[in-house]
């Protein structure tokens, strides 16, 4: 499993630019917002956490279609299905490697983009913390879409269509927890704990559903 993790980590970084493409797309999404809403710094600071979260969500969707595509192309997907190691565990390791290579750099880059949106220190810290807690759920949800679309010639768009509606609860509670940390009367802990619960839920459901979809695809 350790060898599989580092193998997938290298493949995720090399394929299509990996983390660099995601961070550049993240930067592009956030950078165009001030040109659309105007130079109002107060407005930018108010909508900053939501914009950073949306940008990170969209950037995290990049490359999800390639989660199982390499194994499908070289035939190693059949070996994964026949090996003694449970397929669910294999999918979990691949999701962990994909998150480390693509979503973790977005979490690290979020404070710099928070400064770009005129966010204060509390908002930047809360955004980074909620992204760290919630972004794995996006990867686990995306694994299901990637497994469903792995056999399709143009599965990238289908993965985004399948995954995006399912990530809305993660986005809602991630942004809610961030705003709760900024606004003193609002409690931060309840939405943050729900966000963690969503990640744990999809960490169980996502790999199991993806493994089932891969087996059905092979049939």
Automatic annotation (TrEMBL):
Family, as annotated: Belongs to the CcmB/CycW/HelB family.
| Name of protein | Heme exporter protein B
Task: Specify the domain of life of the species encoding this protein.
Answer: Bacteria
User: Which NCBIfam families does the UniProt entry name for this protein?
Assistant: ccmB (TIGR01190)
The record describes the protein's role as: Required for the export of heme to the periplasm for the biogenesis of c-type cytochromes.
* Topology in the lipid bilayer: Multi-pass membrane protein
Which UniProt keywords are listed?
Cell inner membrane, Cell membrane, Cytochrome c-type biogenesis, Membrane, Transmembrane, Transmembrane helix, Transport
Major localization class: membrane
Q: Where in the cell is it found?
A: Cell inner membrane
Bilayer-crossing regions: 12-37, 43-64, 128-150, 157-182, 188-214
GO cellular component, alphabetical, reads: plasma membrane
């Amino acid at each position: 499993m350790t060898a599989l993790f580092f193998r997938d980590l290298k493949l995720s970084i090399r394929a299509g630019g990996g983390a660099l493409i995601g961070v550049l797309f993240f930067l592009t999404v956030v950078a165009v917002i001030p040109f659309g809403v105007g130079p109002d710094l107060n407005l930018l600071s108010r909508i900053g956490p939501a914009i950073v979260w949306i940008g990170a969500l969209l950037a995290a969707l990049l490359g999800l279609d390639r989660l199982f595509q390499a194994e499908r192309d070289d035939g190693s997907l059949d070996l994964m299905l026949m090996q003694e190691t449970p397929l669910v565990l294999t999918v979990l390791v691949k999701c962990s490697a994909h998150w480390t290579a693509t979503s973790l750099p977005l979490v690290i880059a979020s404070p710099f983009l928070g400064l770009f949106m005129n966010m204060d220190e509390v908002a930047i810290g809360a955004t980074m913390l909620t992204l760290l807690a919630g972004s794995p759920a996006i990867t686990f949800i995306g694994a299901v879409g990637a497994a469903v679309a792995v056999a399709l010639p143009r599965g990238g768009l289908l993965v985004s269509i399948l995954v995006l509606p399912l990530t809305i609860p993660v986005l809602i509670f991630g942004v809610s927890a961030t705003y709760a940390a900024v606004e003193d009367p609002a409690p931060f802990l309840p939405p943050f704990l729900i966000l963690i619960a969503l990640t744990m839920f999809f960490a169980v459901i996502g790999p199991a559903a993806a493994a089932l979809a891969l087996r059905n695809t092979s049939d």
